[in-house]
Amino acid sequence: MSYPNSDESENQDNPSEAEISAQKEIILKQILDSEARLRLNNVRMVKPDLAGMIENYIIGMASQGKIRSPITDDQLKQILLSTQQPKRDFKINRR
After folding, report:
1. Is residue 1 part of a domain?
2. What is the CATH classification number for the domain harbouring 21?
3. Residue pLDDT, tens place only, 43-67
4. Helical segments of the chain, H only
5. What is the pLDDT of residue 16?
6. DSSP secondary structure string, 63-81?
7. What residues make up the domain containing 68?
8. What's residue 1's pLDDT?
């Protein structure tokens, strides 16, 4: 049984993805300096899932008060390096 306007009330309670991404962008503009934002955008083009994870991490750190000054490009590089999986080396022996 379907109730009229049930979908409309759900849309009013939950913000849309566009609103959430807009809020993330506003927060990231305050937290990251211009070079770091540019690097994060470049990462987003190549690996969107990694960029989303980094964004959530940075926003979480800022909301906990652990980030006081804007994150520089070098600091963002360190965050990216710490989150990436180590590369596996394969050694092939020929006989």
Report:
1. no
2. 1.10.8.140
3. 999 999 999 999 999 989 888 888 8
4. 6-13, 17-31, 34-46, 48-63, 73-83
5. 84
6. HTT---SPBPHHHHHHHHH
7. 17-80
8. 54
